[in-house]
Amino acid sequence: MRSKPLLYTPDWLVSFQKEIAGALFLTPDTGEVICEYRKRYGMSQEEFGELMELRRESISRIENGSVTPTFDFAKKFVNAMALIEAIRVERAQHKEIDIYFLENLAKELGFDREKLEFMLKVAVESYDKKLVKIQKSLRR
Hints:
By secondary structure, the chain is mostly helical. About 75% of the residues lie in helices and about 0% in strands. It has a single domain (about 10-140), classed as Putative cytoplasmic protein (Orthogonal Bundle), CATH 1.10.3100. It has seven helices and no strands. The longest helix is centred in the last third of the chain and has 27 residues, at about 115-140.
């Protein structure tokens, strides 16, 4: 079975997805990997649960290793982190974020407009916080 070609997902993002998937499936502590990415993008367990359509308690159990995530969860997680990273890269490269590109990318990765809006907020806030931190360190 061949999958359909990706029209909007750039090669660098496919590599990023593979890196996350490898970390998830090749690391003994899957929950730790998930927790690291959640924190990397500045999400609380509750916000992350909203994104993944799970309760905060379920996210906590996955992160502490008492529950193993399903394949569907892992796939959605990889795609969500990739979309957030793509938004951050868009933010870094352009003053204007290309919403048309991101809407199509979100659709290709399986996310609706509402989830895209949530991920835009998460991505831009986490990128801007990182940028401020870097700027402060350069002033010292």
